[in-house]
Automatic annotation (TrEMBL):
<dbReference type="InterPro" id="IPR044770">
    <property type="entry name" value="MFS_spinster-like"/>
</dbReference>
<dbReference type="InterPro" id="IPR036259">
    <property type="entry name" value="MFS_trans_sf"/>
</dbReference>
<feature type="transmembrane region" description="Helical">
    <location>
        <begin position="198"/>
        <end position="218"/>
    </location>
</feature>
<feature type="transmembrane region" description="Helical">
    <location>
        <begin position="134"/>
        <end position="150"/>
    </location>
</feature>
<comment type="similarity">
    <text>Belongs to the major facilitator superfamily. Spinster (TC 2.A.1.49) family.</text>
</comment>
<protein>
    <recommendedName>
        <fullName>Major facilitator superfamily (MFS) profile domain-containing protein</fullName>
    </recommendedName>
</protein>
<keyword id="KW-0812">Transmembrane</keyword>
<dbReference type="Pfam" id="PF07690">
    <property type="entry name" value="MFS_1"/>
</dbReference>
<feature type="transmembrane region" description="Helical">
    <location>
        <begin position="6"/>
        <end position="33"/>
    </location>
</feature>
<dbReference type="GO" id="GO:0022857">
    <property type="term" value="F:transmembrane transporter activity"/>
</dbReference>
<dbReference type="InterPro" id="IPR011701">
    <property type="entry name" value="MFS"/>
</dbReference>
<feature type="transmembrane region" description="Helical">
    <location>
        <begin position="96"/>
        <end position="114"/>
    </location>
</feature>
<feature type="domain" description="Major facilitator superfamily (MFS) profile">
    <location>
        <begin position="1"/>
        <end position="338"/>
    </location>
</feature>
<keyword id="KW-1133">Transmembrane helix</keyword>
<feature type="transmembrane region" description="Helical">
    <location>
        <begin position="64"/>
        <end position="84"/>
    </location>
</feature>
<feature type="transmembrane region" description="Helical">
    <location>
        <begin position="292"/>
        <end position="312"/>
    </location>
</feature>
<feature type="transmembrane region" description="Helical">
    <location>
        <begin position="224"/>
        <end position="247"/>
    </location>
</feature>
Amino acid sequence: MVFNPFRLIGVGLTVWTIAVLGCGSSFAFWFIVLCRMFVGLGEASFISLAAPFIDDNAPHKQKAVWLGVFYMCIPSGVALGYVYGGYVGKHFSWRYAFWGEAVLMAPFAVLGFLMKPLQLKDAETSKNKNHLQAGGYVSYNFVIGAYSYWGPKAGYNIYKMKNADMIFGAVTIICGIIGTLSGGFILDRVTATIPNAFKLLSGATFLGAIFCFTAFTLKSLNGFIALFALGELLVFATQAPVNYVCLHCVEPSLRPLSMAISTVAIHIFGDVPSSPLVGIVQDHINSWRKTALILTSVLFLAAAIWFIGIFINSVDRFNGEESESEKQRRQEQSIVTP
């Protein structure tokens, strides 16, 4: 009997669809919180399997670009959420926003049960771990998560933005698409390796942090939008490289587990605590400009962590590479063993 991971995706998306319907039908705060938890549970079913599937089926010289296309859906989805939620909530009801999502997702849940069984490349257990990828990704997601939650409110209070949701949504979707695709394309062009991925991660995040930080110091709305857009363009260029590292720092058979651990880490230590912590900071200092600057500074930490990764002897487990120390250890073991 062949195990079909796509069936697991179908089950997860079914749970997601039912949970979203529950959100739209909520009658109390505790109920919508419970439904939101099940939304995350359903989402987790395909997060761990989609990237390894792409990694196996993408052309060798276009793996990063293909990953970039996939992860482009995150910023574009968040941006469309701003626009979609704001429009539906204003003209109809917030409940219809949830119900509409459920209807759109239902066909994909059905496809999960009908798709051909997914076959992933297998290998032996790996001892190679890359904590720097996760550490930098947590810091990165800490900022991005808070931006998505507090960004429109901060923009309205600092620059008196009208339709702040629409403005942030437009900037995010344009920069998210261009930045994510560019990051994957550049990594493929310079040859996709773990050290090169870390170079791109640290460089793009550092420059993006400078632009975003400077943007929040300006008094001009137009100046803010221009610099913040450049910053987001660079920051989103990290999506393909960071997930390339996550996939290739372990043996192929452990890629779903690696993606799962990375996803859990960036949410538990990143975007989940960042929004309430930013709210606490804002309540304490009562200045959205200072709060935004403090938050953006965390991107420099992410850049620093990824910069260290350039100098770590990382082995691409997907391609079956061995470091010199591993080769020497294997040779010594073959000599000692009779």
